[in-house]
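Tokens as discussed.
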């Protein structure tokens, strides 16, 4: 066993899949064990979530996927509507995530879905995710401007960049914007 910095957590080999390491921890709130792959653990820390949120929130893996998934869905809706006003509005609302520790999509979850799902509170965003919101906001506004000016390249290219990247982050937990943030800033993530 390889022990991480926190004595409660241990990486263990999964007996069903040799070579596959999983994080196993005992939850303080309930007498249960849950598993998180080493990859997911690392990706969540790279996205700027605090180590405490990743360690102590058993639903952080699902909750972290909500923001990029909602961003991709609402962006795809804007692309299909081809509405400059919608995309400008979405860009402005996405900008909330730049100046706040939660994004517009997180507030939608907190208000409408949290009471229904019972998954708990959305963890707060760190600088890498805020940087991602800035990129998303800029691309949505740029796409809306393209539709307003009736310029197909300016309309579709920004939206067709952000939408697949958002869905990629939702389904794999790898976030291009977070990776770019760490590359540009030269800051090491909490995990590396």
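Sequence:
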């Amino acid at each position: 066993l390889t022990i991480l910095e926190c004595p409660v957590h241990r990486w263990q080999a999964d007996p069903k899949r040799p070579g596959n390491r999983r994080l196993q921890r005992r939850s303080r709130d309930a007498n249960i064990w849950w598993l998180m792959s080493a990859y997911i653990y690392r990706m969540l820390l790279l996205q700027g979530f605090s180590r405490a949120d990743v360690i102590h929130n058993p639903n952080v893996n699902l909750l972290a996927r909500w923001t990029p998934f909602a961003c991709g869905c609402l962006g795809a809706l804007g692309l299909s509507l081809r509405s400059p006003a919608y995309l400008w509005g979405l860009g402005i609302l996405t900008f909330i995530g730049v100046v706040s520790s939660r994004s517009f999509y997180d507030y939608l979850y907190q208000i409408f879905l949290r009471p229904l799902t019972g998954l708990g509170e959305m963890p707060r965003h760190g600088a890498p995710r805020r940087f991602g919101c800035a990129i998303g906001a800029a691309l949505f506004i740029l796409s809306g401007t393209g539709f307003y000016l009736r310029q197909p390249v300016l309309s579709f290219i920004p939206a067709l960049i952000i939408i697949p990247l958002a869905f990629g982050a939702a389904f794999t937990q790898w976030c291009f914007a977070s990776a770019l943030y760490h590359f540009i800033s030269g800051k090491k993530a909490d995990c590396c």
